[in-house]
Amino acid sequence: MSKANLLPSKKVDVNSKVVNVATVPQRSPFRYAGGKTWLIPKIRQWLNEREASSKELIEPFAGGGIVSLTAACENLVHRVTMVEKDEGVAAVWQIVLNGGAQWLADKIVNFQLTPENAKEVIENANESLESLAFATIVKNRVNRGGILADGSSFVKKGENGKGIRSRWYPETLKKRILAIGRVKDKINFIQGDGFDVCQQNYSREDVIYFIDPPYPKTGKRLYRYSEVNHQQLFALAARLKGDFLMTYNDAVELREMGNFYDFEMKQVAMKNTHHAKKSELLISKNLAWLSSEVTKKPTDKN
C-alpha cells in the first residue's frame, strides 16, 4: 500500500449528524460496549435501499445484536443469522432463541440483586447453559460499562449512588427478552467464528452482511475474544458476492486498507456512553444510498 493512501481519500465524507439514541427502540438485553444503537437509522436506510426484505442478513460479530434484532423485528430482511464466539453471550442467545425466553425473563424478574448474590451467580456460571446465560446477563448489568472481558469489575457508585443496581431493570429486560422470543423463528444463531460463516457464504448473492468487529486497540479491553486479523477481514469482505456494511473506528491504517480494496468510506458522527462526540467509519463497496433521506418510519410488523 502506498503512502499516498495514508491520506483521507475523496471517498471519506465527514458530514453527518449525531443520532439521538433515545429515539431508537432498545431491543437488546445487553449493555454492549461498542453497541450500534446509534447507527440503527442508517441501518434501516441501508436495508431499505438494498431491498433486503427477500435476503438473509448475516452478522458475524453479533455481540448485543441490535442490528439483527432490529432487522428481524421490523421485517427489514427475510431471515437473520447471528454469529458470536463468546460463550457467555452465545449462551444468552441460545436460550432466548431456542424456547427459553420465558424462563430467562422470569429468572431475571425473580432475582434479588445484591453484590453477594451477583457474585454467587457468576461463580456458578459453568453449571449449565442456563446458568451461564443468566450469569452473563447479571455480569453485563453489574459490571462497569457492561464489559464482559476477563478482569472487569462491578460498578461501585453507579447512578445516584445505586451501585450495582444502577443498570438492573428487570421488567425492562423481561419485556425485551420476550419480544425477541416472539421473533425467534426469523433468527438463526451460530456460536462460532464469524470469519468461517462469511467464508462459507461468500458466493451467495442473496445474503447481506453487517460486519462490526472488535476494533483495534480498544477491543482487548472490552471483549473476551478481541483478536481479529483486520487485513484478512478486509480481504474477505472484498470477496463477498453479497452487499456488506462494515463499521470501524476512524483510523489512518483502516482508511489505507479501505483504499487498497477500493471501498467507499463515510465518516459518521456518534456519541459514546460518556456523551462525548466521536466519529466512526462506514465502509462498503457502494455507499451511494447514504445520499438519500429516510422518509419511511419504522414499524414492527409482528
From TrEMBL:
InterPro entries: MeTrfase_D12, SAM-dependent_MTases_sf. GO terms for biological process: DNA restriction-modification system; methylation; mismatch repair. One of its GO terms (molecular function) is site-specific DNA-methyltransferase (adenine-specific) activity. It comes from the Bacteria. Keywords: Methyltransferase, S-adenosyl-L-methionine, Transferase. Gene3D superfamilies: Vaccinia Virus protein VP39. Pfam families: MethyltransfD12. This is DNA adenine methylase. It comes from Oxynema aestuarii AP17.
